[in-house]
Specification:
The protein has 429 residues and is mainly alpha-helical. It has 18 helices and 2 strands. Helix 4 runs antiparallel to helix 8, helix 7 packs antiparallel against helix 12 and helix 11 packs across helix 17. It folds into 2 domains: 191 residues, Up-down Bundle (Growth Hormone, Chain: A); 188 residues, MFS general substrate transporter like domains (Growth Hormone, Chain: A, Up-down Bundle), CATH 1.20.1250.20. Strands 1-2 form a two-stranded antiparallel ribbon.
Length: 429
Amino acid sequence: MEGPLQNSPRPWRWIPSLYFGEGIPYVVVMTLAVVMYKNLGISNTDIALYTSWLYLPWVIKPLWSPLVDLFRTKRLWIVSLQFVIGAAFALVALTLPAPHVFRLTLAVFWLMAFSSATHDIAADGFYLLGMPGHQQAAFVGVRSTFYRLAMIAGQGGLVYLVGSLQESTGSVVRAWTLIFWLLAAFFVLLAFYHATALPKPAADRAAARTDNFLIGFVEVFAAFFRKPGIGVTLAYLLLYRLAEAQALKLITPFLLDQRAVGGLGLTTKDVGIVYGTVGVIALTVGGILGGIVIARHGLKRLLWPMIFAMHAPIAVFLGLALLQPSSLAVIGAAIALEQFGYGFGFTAYMVYMMMVAEGEHKTAHYAICTGFMALSMMLPGMGAGWLQEHFGYVNFFGWVCLTTLPSFVVTALLKVDPAFGRKAAPAAG
């Protein structure tokens, strides 16, 4: 029988770089774009509204995910899309000095977002084909770690670097232009590297197209919406992060805004340290710990502790807005606490999606869940900037705390398998 791989390099040659490359465009679209527009003087209302629309490709990616299976190989999709993403970074660099920079860069970020979402589909599918099952399980932690490292590199390293470049060049536009040329070069090199480093699994080929494809495609979606308790499930997927979705869009503007208008007056370099580095590390540690305790005790037992852990620390932003501390250590500690709680509590959400996806169409149904997950961030974030600009940071973060309540209501309605997520006890000897 033919093995699963032909001429396959070792997984360490391609998994770290693949998932680091998967994380970079996402963090650029979702976080660096917010920092850049704030540096360019765009209003909080416009930043929150228009960058929230950039979640849309991740919302609707289940609709075109079958195309990645039907046309060509996932390996070709990965390499081609990395060239496209590199070109998109170059286009941002070219449009930054131009008139109408907000409109032009947003259009390019749309291209980047669709390319990144499609790259996610291809990369995750390729991971399942690129090595035997036992190695897939062994490298789950590796892929997650390098995705998180991409977040630290983007939110931390690149934000700090752009702050340093602003100080040395005296120009916000020049600093961001250099950053995007750097990203463009990195992704072109990454594409060339993966063109040789990615294995060539025998199973990585275009799926056979049939006349009944459309019927089967519709049936996959219909089966998802026929699941028991689907109404409560959808409410949970859409409301669990209602508060965090609003706060997330305004954290960076809040940190950068001057103290006279209610912000904390940090420099771009400071934001790269306290939010992009310390915050992401705390988020990662919280997520790892959340996974460990769910594996030990099961999702049902941890559901309520995790929702409290996720939502209670949001109050630190209200405290920061009221007190406006000047100590970078105090601000960093507050952000670390909130991000740790978010990472810990969000694990319950991820494991619940896995439970919902169980069944015949597990991969497709999990993709649908992730679409609703992205929608839950997109819709609340759109109006967050308008709320903040009309009511100020103190009232805005007070409102954010209040909007944690719907998630408690839907959590109370969930039905969870007591054994789901928990490791099976070893058999008696």
